[in-house]
């Protein structure tokens, strides 16, 4: 039977090489993907299959994989694999970006304060509303942002314009609308209390698409964990590959289109991603050993599925069931 397996190759075409090296040890991930594809070619010479190594823009900013989905780049793909270096196995959040703009009226803060409508007050109230909201949020929901673009920042002028940017994250896509409604109420209450006009934007140059959570696939997860353990990898005792809280990725959107797996792998350091210490650790010999081992575990998982039509059917059944449970 024919099967097409996809692995991602990372490159952010908008970013310079220096940022590429500093961002999450992604050079380590590239080595993992190259080794994975090579290992697959070595292990399955007698089975008819196709491996696609697809170059994609940055997962954390541009949402390039979502553009590729819309362009039909995944039309002939059966399975998708991607691995990311980290300190431990982690979960992926749904990500939604919102920008809120408050428009008021400038006035002299001493001579005619009653003539003004304070947009900075609206931003402060919204920030406080959201901070108070956190005590009622689920433990695995995230809400974080910043104030920006405050006009007329002079002590004697009431600001006529302010803007907030917030990221909303939930583990499941089905939970995101609930969090969005709560946040929206906080934003609008601040505008009503101050008399400011409120407008919200749901896209930006940084996050152009909402990011989905990664759909679980128990068959692929169990195969990967079994193969990883055979190679000496250690996994947390909790069920599944993804158990801890982390960031967001457009791979989640891909996982709603086809079955896939996105494990995170330890590279031998406790340094945090997005730091110079992690960049240095990613280049160490120890990190290469962890990376190659992960590539082998992914290749072995793909071989299991390629060589067993029953496993492929279970993977597809898991995929369909996971999509139904998200509704």
UniProtKB/TrEMBL annotation:
InterPro entries with a match to the protein in the record: Bact_exopeptidase_dim_dom, Peptidase_M20/M20A_hydrolases, Peptidase_M20_dimer
Source superkingdom: Eukaryota
Domain Peptidase M20 dimerisation: 95-191
Record GO terms (molecular function): dipeptidase activity
Transmembrane segments: none
Protein name per UniProt: Peptidase M20 domain containing 2
Organism (species): Nothobranchius furzeri
């Amino acid at each position: 039977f024919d099967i097409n397996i996809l692995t991602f190759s990372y490159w952010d075409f908008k970013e310079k090489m220096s940022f590429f090296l500093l961002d999450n040890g992604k050079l380590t991930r590239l080595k993992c993907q190259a080794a994975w594809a090579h290992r697959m070619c070595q292990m399955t010479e007698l089975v008819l299959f196709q491996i696609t190594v697809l170059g994609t823009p940055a997962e954390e900013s541009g949402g390039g994989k979502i553009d590729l989905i819309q362009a039909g780049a995944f039309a002939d793909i059966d399975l998708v694999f991607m691995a990311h270096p980290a300190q431990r196995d982690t979960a992926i959040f749904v990500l939604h970006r919102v920008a809120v703009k408050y428009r008021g009226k400038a006035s002299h803060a001493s001579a005619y304060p009653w003539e003004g409508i304070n947009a900075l007050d609206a931003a402060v109230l919204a920030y406080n509303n959201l901070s108070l909201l956190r005590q009622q949020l689920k433990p695995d929901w995230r809400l974080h942002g910043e104030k920006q673009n405050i006009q007329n920042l002079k002590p004697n002028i009431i600001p006529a314009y302010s803007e907030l940017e917030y990221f909303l994250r939930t583990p499941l896509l089905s939970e995101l609308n609930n969090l969005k409604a709560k946040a929206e109420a906080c934003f609008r209450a601040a505008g009503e209390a101050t008399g400011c006009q409120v407008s919200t934007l749901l896209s930006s140059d940084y996050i152009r698409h909402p990011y989905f959570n990664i759909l679980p696939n128990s068959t692929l997860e169990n195969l990967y964990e079994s193969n990883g353990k055979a190679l000496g990898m250690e996994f947390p005792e909790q069920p599944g590959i993804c158990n801890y809280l982390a960031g967001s990725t457009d791979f989640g959107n891909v996982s709603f289109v086809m079955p896939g797996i996105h494990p995170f792998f330890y590279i031998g350091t406790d340094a945090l991603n997005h730091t110079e210490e992690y960049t240095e650790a990613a280049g160490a010999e120890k990190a290469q050993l962890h990376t190659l081992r992960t590539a082998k575990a992914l290749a072995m998982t793909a071989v299991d599925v390629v060589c067993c039509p029953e496993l492929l059917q279970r993977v597809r059944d898991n995929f369909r069931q996971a999509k139904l449970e998200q509704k």
